[in-house]
Amino acid sequence: MRVSSLLVAAAAASAHAYTTNSQIRLAYHGDSGMMVSWNTFNHVENPSVHWGLSKDRLNNIATSNVSITYPTSTTYNNHVLINDLRPDTTYFYKPSPLMKSNSTDIFNFTTSRRAGDNTPFSVAVVVDLGTMGSKGLTTSAGAPVASTNILQPGERNTIDSLESSLADFDFLWHAGDIAYADYWLKEEIQQFLPNTTIQGGAAVYESILNEFYDEMMAITASKPYMVGPGNHEANCDNAGTKDKAHNITYDSSICMPGQTNFTGFKNHFRMPSDVSGGTGNFWYSFDHGMVHFIQLDTETDLGHGFIGPDETGGSEGFFNVDPVNATMNAQTTWLEADLAAVDRSKTPWVIVAGHRALYLSNTDDTCSTCKDVFEPLLIKYKVDLVLSGHSHIYERLAPLAEGKEDPNGLENPTFPWYITNGAAGHYDGLDVLESPRQPYSRFGLDTTNATYGWSRLTFHNCTHLTHDFVASNNNTVLDSATLFKARPWCASSSSNHGEHCNHGEDC
Ligand SMILES: *[C@@H]1O[C@H](CO)[C@@H](O)[C@H](O)[C@H]1NC(C)=O
Ligand SMILES: *[C@@H]1O[C@H](CO)[C@@H](O)[C@H](O)[C@H]1NC(C)=O
Ligand SMILES: *[C@@H]1O[C@H](CO)[C@@H](O)[C@H](O)[C@H]1NC(C)=O
Ligand SMILES: *[C@@H]1O[C@H](CO)[C@@H](O)[C@H](O)[C@H]1NC(C)=O
Ligand SMILES: *[C@@H]1O[C@H](CO)[C@@H](O)[C@H](O)[C@H]1NC(C)=O
Ligand SMILES: *[C@@H]1O[C@H](CO)[C@@H](O)[C@H](O)[C@H]1NC(C)=O
Ligand SMILES: *[C@@H]1O[C@H](CO)[C@@H](O)[C@H](O)[C@H]1NC(C)=O
Ligand SMILES: *[C@@H]1O[C@H](CO)[C@@H](O)[C@H](O)[C@H]1NC(C)=O
Ligand SMILES: *[C@@H]1O[C@H](CO)[C@@H](O)[C@H](O)[C@H]1NC(C)=O
Ligand SMILES: *[C@@H]1O[C@H](CO)[C@@H](O)[C@H](O)[C@H]1NC(C)=O
Ligand SMILES: [Fe+2]
């Protein structure tokens, strides 16, 4: 470890720009629950949420004693679960206390659709979405950043695009790489942010996190925000930062306690793992209408003798990151049990997201150990679609198993379909799609086409699912593909009382 005396203590000033909007965020929790989370500057003895069916009668109160922080954090994370709600119903709510104690804002959310409800709906998916504006992706960047990777004047970013599309999706799924607070040092070295010291940098890291969650509140206060782990949640310095001018290479051993081991991520969210048998915010599942959604952890806990990429000793070279579950092979044991228990007559669709891709033209960004442990189960249980990011490109592939294309393509394949969309945007933008692309690649966008965007999944019915790449700049669809799955039992399931069937789709 080399701690620099060369970074001058010019400005802890950039660190106080945090916020007064409380970072309100929601998450589905079981069939009839909603987790309401928000931040305050002080510890709160009993965080509470006033809620009700109409704006002027918030006559119910849910409370908890969960108001938690960690070293270097400037806020407390409050988590309150509201239980026994009706499915697919809009409620109004107000967390208390808020940072602005005199705020009169009343928020609303809509609960999960009952499993087996066949009503069509859409979901927004992002991976690799960083802070926008003066601490992240904007119309300027440090000198090494390509001009195609910054925003053009007036170009709408992905957070604003999602906000402008709130009516078009039920929830937002963010499968890792959230905020990129660990870019603080890179942004200082590239002279995009004012220089601080390593010590002072801890405050910059937290200010970037706060800024991101503030920006996201425009979406996450009314739409559930389901998240999973990415490598940029692990620590304060990612896989290391080079200061070429001073011939210093930093690594994550510079990180303060509180800025290692996924600490911010563990504190900030309460994903529904306790009601789905998963582990923390790392792996879990939930039903929504005709879909069973599964979040996987490609960063730690792969089991089977592998060291996860972000664990101490793993491929990223990180320090001080431990597995999150001490049980041997906990994640794949859980995944198999979770998949085996899916009732395809109720939730015919099974969609999986994990941060790193199993297949991609940019092979350096794939996770072969993830493929080893997860793919056999994804094939065996006929998962419909596998989503990922990590590579900052968009690439839609064919349905695949063990590297072979399904002969049916998207017309009733047996193999899982793979899509990577890491093009949501962050400080230094998009990557280059490797050329030549894999033979099973069907469509790609990268820094050459300079297009930021998000994914929209539309579940039309039991047999048809459409994936769209939505360009953030103008909300136009730059790529659209529809998957068809023949499911003979669907025709009779419009009553929502299909016959119970387990173990894949062979009912
Ligand atoms: C918080 O509440 C739970 C149950 O609601 C209880 O088990 C726990 O002891 C409480 N913790 C504190 C610190 O009060
Ligand atoms: C109350 O609201 C006013 C106007 O928005 C604001 O200036 C003030 O800081 C708020 N007070 C507190 C305690 O948040
Ligand atoms: C719920 O909140 C969103 C975001 O503020 C808003 O656009 C929408 O109109 C609200 N819905 C209702 C029913 O008030
Ligand atoms: C900040 O640090 C970088 C790299 O150490 C250096 O090149 C730059 O001149 C410094 N900027 C200021 C304003 O001190
Ligand atoms: C940079 O640092 C390394 C190791 O600290 C050293 O071996 C190398 O000679 C240095 N290079 C320059 C140009 O100073
Ligand atoms: C670890 O996984 C086991 C088995 O899946 C589960 O029962 C346990 O709750 C998990 N532990 C944690 C800390 O979540
Ligand atoms: C990492 O966090 C886990 C809890 O999730 C804790 O048990 C472990 O001691 C932590 N390890 C380090 C190196 O901080
Ligand atoms: C975008 O550019 C990449 C890299 O040159 C290329 O592979 C891809 O086909 C382009 N996409 C479109 C839609 O033109
Ligand atoms: C929308 O924006 C994208 C990305 O900037 C661009 O490629 C496309 O041509 C635009 N479409 C329209 C209809 O303006
Ligand atoms: C399912 O949705 C697709 C796409 O909208 C449509 O073409 C198809 O006819 C629908 N199937 C049924 C059984 O309604
Ligand atoms: Fe990543």
UniProtKB/TrEMBL annotation:
Residues 22-111 form the Purple acid phosphatase N-terminal domain. The keyword Signal applies. Gene3D superfamilies: 3.60.21.10, Purple acid phosphatase-like, N-terminal. Residues 416-480 form the Purple acid phosphatase C-terminal domain. Its EC number is 3.1.3.2. Residues 167-394 form the Calcineurin-like phosphoesterase domain. Keywords: Glycoprotein, Hydrolase, Signal. Residues 1-17 form the signal peptide. One of its GO terms (molecular function) is acid phosphatase activity. InterPro entries: Calcineurin-like_PHP (IPR004843), Metallo-depent_PP-like (IPR029052), MPP_PAP (IPR041792), PAPs-like (IPR039331), PAPs_C (IPR025733), PAPs_N (IPR015914), Purple_acid_Pase-like_N (IPR008963). It catalyses: a phosphate monoester + H2O = an alcohol + phosphate. Belongs to the metallophosphoesterase superfamily. Purple acid phosphatase family. This is Purple acid phosphatase. It comes from Neurospora tetraspora. The lineage of its organism: Eukaryota, Fungi, Dikarya, Ascomycota, Pezizomycotina.
